[in-house]
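Deliverable D5.2: sample structural annotation.
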Amino acid sequence: MNRRTQTLIVAILCAIAIGTSGAPRAEVVSLGVAGRTNLTPWIAAHGKTVAVAWGATAEGKTDVFLALSRDEGATFGAPVRVNAVAGTARLGGELPPRVAVTDDGIVVLWGARGTSTSIEIARSTDGGKSFGPATALQAPAAVGDRGWPSLSVGRDGLAHAFWLDHRGLAESRATQKPAADHGKGHGTHDGVAMAQKSALYYASFGKTAAAERSIAPGVCYCCKTATAASDRRVYAAWRHVFPGNIRDIAFASSSDGGRTFTPLARVSEDGWQIAGCPDDGPAMAVDRRGVVHLVWPTVIGSATPEGALFYATSSDGRTFSPRVRLQTLGSAHPTHPQIAVDGAGRVVVAWDERMEGRRLVAARVVSPAASPLAPIITLTDGESGQYPVLAATPTALLAAWASGGEGSTIKVRRIP
């Protein structure tokens, strides 16, 4: 598809959302590449600029596309392909591309397929019109599987990337009798010991880039990671495998721009014991005061287990407040939470949830946690949606999600 065709598609979709008068007629804008299935969105904002990145798949090959708005998400330009080598992106609901917008340009991070999977990052310095060659963040000889990356950019423009890396398990398999994967299997092997062969990795990208290194072994392998940056502070959260095969959320922070990190801290002792990876990780945001806001899914109860979303905060970057359960739409399995802080200081959580045979995307304001929570807003009107993501502009809070099945589109909507 040529650029003119892509421009026409976005122009038509935006005209439907805005109306011929130029005044907003609906709150939803649709993005997508025609002839492809459009899934796995991520959204970021800086000032009035909003970037949405997603994966577009056709004939089993996936590329990363990005669409840019200069008016706080009211309209978007034509999608631009980010990955230089066509069809090599490796994406999924828990491993979408990540994007950040800064004064210096736009940075996109994603997983790629090759002889072994790769974590790749590229920057645009021309306002999103094109992207430079991708840089692989893992060592050239790194074997095995890796993915589930997250991205944050500090005020100095340095990009911080975290991901889950399986190279230790691949090396073990090369010298030992194969065992079940701790992230997928349900066998009788020691899940905690197997998890020690997978680790959270970190690398930075920019003028003072730092090479990859392991931050913590023992990760639960198929859940998304989360990161945020504030001044020189960098934060990371992930699902960890604790003794007893407990899959709780772990957290680490750096106060020196990623040079060193604290030992991992356990956010909450949820007690969720599972011999496999739940494919559902944490999300994080930092407000103007430097308070970390964290939301995550877990399963509670033993006789009749049910899924739940929990929220906690940290003022010192080391310890967290007691968890607060968030009321959702009412099903037993709310999933895939995301969190953002808007320009007014509101902390908003979004998630998806199966209700009456379809998945709905919902959101609600959760701060201050001690006050009665605001009503739930259902973002999907009469259609299915999944994997919502959030970003704040000076005057708006935006949600994006994947809508529909085959031929899916990416929807973007303002949250009141």
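Annotation notes: Residues 3-26, 178-188 have pLDDT under 50 and may be disordered. Residues 3-18 form the longest helix (16 residues).
The annotation will be released with the project's public dataset once the embargo ends.
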